[in-house]
Specification:
Number of strands: 0
Oligomer: single chain
Number of helices: 1
Helix content: 55-70%
Length: 49
């Protein structure tokens, strides 16, 4: 970038960026919750043994 040029963030962010960001966040949360549920199932199975 040459001195004096303006940087436009709009050039890098298209219209779907928020949707992709939210999808990635939801996938991360779902993976965390699935691991937590599997651990709870493991603990319950260990208590019954």
């Amino acid at each position: 970038m040459a001195e004096g040029d303006l940087y436009r963030i709009e050039d890098e962010i298209d219209e779907g960026w928020l949707e992709r960001w939210l999808e990635a966040g939801i996938e991360t949360i779902e993976a965390y919750l699935a691991k937590h549920a599997a651990f709870v199932d493991f603990l319950e199975a260990a208590e019954q043994s």
